[in-house]
Specification:
Number of helices: 7
Largest sheet: 8 strands, antiparallel, barrel
Strand order of the largest sheet: 1-2-5-4-6-9-7-8
Strand content: 15-25%
Radius of gyration: 20 Å
Number of strands: 9
Mean pLDDT: 72
Shape: elongated
């Protein structure tokens, strides 16, 4: 992009979070004192913000930094109600999955590095595993066995959306690299049950859910706050607010494109989400420390999850449909 870059960022030591919701318009310079769309310091888009010491209400384990994203609309939406779900891989049985027999929503461009680069790490099995973990938790079954996909460490986010319009239902992750098996277990439940913007998820919501797994890669500190590409890079900003406190905020790579924002609108939205209430000037934007990153993302609906599980069941040589659990009887 022709701009000088600083030294590379260390993604494993960063904390922030998260993703976006339905498209909204944002003026390039919100008025003084405005909290941006949604007001109240940030409650309409998902975009993490916290003081350097951590976010109130977030309870990360020792050595792991995580942050609730701020924003999104709570509550469910009218959507298709499915028949009683098939049982996931709870409390035993094969931990892995055969290749999906259904169409999935993948976003390889941002994380794959372009044609001819390495194979994507994120997979449908990861979304399936997240559904397994949530299902077993909600119905009181033993947690699913360890999956067969890689257990390499990555910074990661788990996002839940609901309904036909895919409204945000929960999104929490970590910029500290975690082994995927334990990381996805933890953040599946954290994003579903402990996102402070929403009530804990319920069984009735399962049939309308969409799960997305994002693995974060390619962290780079840049000297110019405009040195990133909409739709390709996620960005994390650090800044000093009007009270002299260090604050951080982040958007995953898809957010700016989904919202229809340009660079300035995205930066200003992040500043508002981070709690910056003073007028935003170009001189202040130049003081921001910006880290850009990429992600690999996979999305799966609950319907696709059931089809995936059904396919796996038949692949194991069982010639009849899986029975529903007895809580439906």
């Amino acid at each position: 992009m022709g701009r000088k870059r600083c030294v590379g960022g260390d993604g494993s030591k960063m904390a922030a979070g998260c993703c976006g919701v339905k498209k909204q318009k944002l003026s390039s310079s919100p008025p003084s004192g405005s909290a941006g769309p949604g007001g109240g310091g940030g409650s309409s888009h998902c975009g993490g913000a916290a003081a350097a010491g951590g976010e109130p209400g977030a309870l990360p384990p020792p050595g792991i930094a995580r942050l609730n994203g701020l924003g999104g609309l709570a509550g469910g939406a009218a959507g298709c109600v499915l028949s009683p779900p098939l049982p996931p891989n709870c409390g035993g049985g094969p931990g892995g999955l055969s290749p999906p027999a259904v169409s999935l929503l993948a976003s390889p461009g941002a994380g794959s590095g372009g044609p001819g680069c390495r194979k994507m790490v994120v997979s449908a099995e990861m979304c399936c595993f997240c559904f397994d973990v949530l299902y077993c938790h909600l119905y009181g079954y033993q947690p699913p066995r360890s999956p067969r996909f890689t257990n390499d460490p990555y910074p990661l986010f788990v996002t839940w959306k609901i309904g036909r319009d895919k409204r945000l239902r929960g999104c929490i992750g970590t910029f500290s690299a975690m082994n995927l098996h334990s990381g996805l277990r933890e953040y599946t439940l954290t994003s579903a049950l402990k996102d402070s913007r929403f009530p804990p998820m319920t069984r009735d919501e399962l049939p309308r859910l969409f799960c997305s797994v994002s693995l974060l890669t390619n962290f780079e500190d840049v000297c110019d706050y405009l040195d990133w590409e909409v739709g390709v890079h996620g960005i994390r900003i650090e800044f000093i607010n009007e009270k002299g406190s260090k604050r951080t905020a982040t958007y995953l790579p898809e957010v700016a494109k989904e919202q229809g924002w340009d660079h300035i609108q995205t930066i200003d939205s992040l500043l508002r989400k981070g709690g910056y209430k003073a007028p935003i000037t170009n001189e202040f934007r130049k003081t921001i420390k910006l880290t850009r990153y990429r992600s690999e993302k996979m999305t799966m609906s609950y319907t696709e999850y059931l089809a995936h599980r059904q396919h796996h069941h038949f692949q194991n040589g069982i010639g009849h449909p899986l029975p529903p659990y007895n809580h439906y009887s």
